[in-house]
Amino acid sequence: MVIRTNTLKVKRRDLAKALIGRGVSLEPLAEWSKVGLKVNDSKVPIGATPEYLAGHYILQSPSSFLPVIALCPQPDEVVIDMAAAPGGKTTYMAQLMKNKGTIIANDSQKARTKALYANCQRLGVSNVIISNYDGRKLPSIVKNVDRVLLDSPCSGLGLISRDPSMKTQKNFKEISKLSALQKELLLAGIDCVNPHSKTGGYIVYSTCSVTVEENEAVINYALNHRYVKIVETGVQVGVSGVIAYKKYRFPASMKLARRVYPHVHNMDGFFFCKLKKLSLIHICRCRRRG
Questions:
Q1: What is the pLDDT of residues 55-88, one digit of tens each?
Q2: Torsion angle of the four alpha carbons 41, 44, 45, 50, in this order, in degrees rounded to the nearest 10
Q3: pLDDT tens readout for residues 98-149
Q4: DSSP 89-101
Q5: E strands of 107-178, at which residues?
Q6: What spatial distance separates the first Cα and last Cα of the chain, rounded to whole Å?
Q7: Distance from C-alpha of 238 to C-alpha of 183, rounded to nearest angstrom
Q8: C-alpha span between 248 and 140 (Å, rounded)
Q9: Which residues participate in catalysis according to the annotation?
């Protein structure tokens, strides 16, 4: 089990000291995280300690730290989290932004926004506006933001190590439908971003899936339809993105994307890629290389 320290309220060393005093055995998550703590054993329920109720930490998969670190939102920016519930990534972004600027935390399922609201309240996040729209419609509602995070709806096939039943629950037809939705969502996310932002102009796309159809193929679609380029994530976790798989051939820049595998990195399977928007103009031709 992993928890993320809420540095809006407490320092990691002080949180660790308090939890150790309650009988929790823990250690720093990894060198790449300054806020993660790995819980090895506990004499008390981790989700019911006074520190948890006071908003000093949140239970969160370490893989889901990565797209937020890659996005690197800055104080005073305007940022969109397109699929925000239940709020782990949104509240981490607020942390990095020091509760300054604005985060538009959107989720297409109204029922899920209750958990998003509750987590923001518990963690003391005050720079979030919660919305309930189909993510594909966001460009008609908000434009010229500095950064966008799209942790896209996906097959969840990166979570098989936690739920082996997924092997029989998913099929290629469902993955194809998800891939089509992901492409639409990513284009919408790109269209919300201001390429002339002085501090941003970035989009991070991520999924908890390891299929090429939901990841590199979606990024490649965006390269062919919008003036964007793949840039370094700034996160030295995982392995490079795939540039050749079955019928697929992707540009060499796809190596800048990152893949996380459960059997290699001891985390949920994950994919994330960072894009820089170059222009407001849409690409009309059907294919673009680079």
A1: 999 999 999 999 999 999 999 999 999 999 999 9
A2: -120
A3: 999 999 999 999 999 999 999 999 999 999 999 999 999 999 999 999 999 9
A4: HHHHHHHHTTT-S
A5: 128-131, 147-151
A6: 40
A7: 23
A8: 33
A9: 208
